[in-house]
């Protein structure tokens, strides 16, 4: 399989994950988010959850839409930004001792963002 194809698959996968979690944070109250299994949300005000939701939705759009309008450089920049957002999430999960599966899942997202950014900045740039 061509590297460009699997990078598009990876970008689509990341977009779906971040779009889903972002919409959840934008459309639910903090209590509903906690009930959905995101216990860490109880430590933050709803305004912070909304901000995180918007960051995730914009990130989801940023890893798939820009190449179609000639702004391919936005993809790796967005992947780095999402990766940094996930580093912050990792810190939260480790502090709360939410190691399995939360911190492990977050590490996987960081790795996927790093792979996408690395390839799109490098050998598979648009």
TrEMBL record:
Organism: Nocardioides mangrovi
Localisation: Membrane
Keywords: Membrane, Transmembrane, Transmembrane helix
Domain of life (superkingdom): Bacteria
Transmembrane segments: 6-27, 71-92, 104-122
Bilayer disposition of the protein: Multi-pass membrane protein
Protein name, per record: DoxX family protein
Coiled coil: none
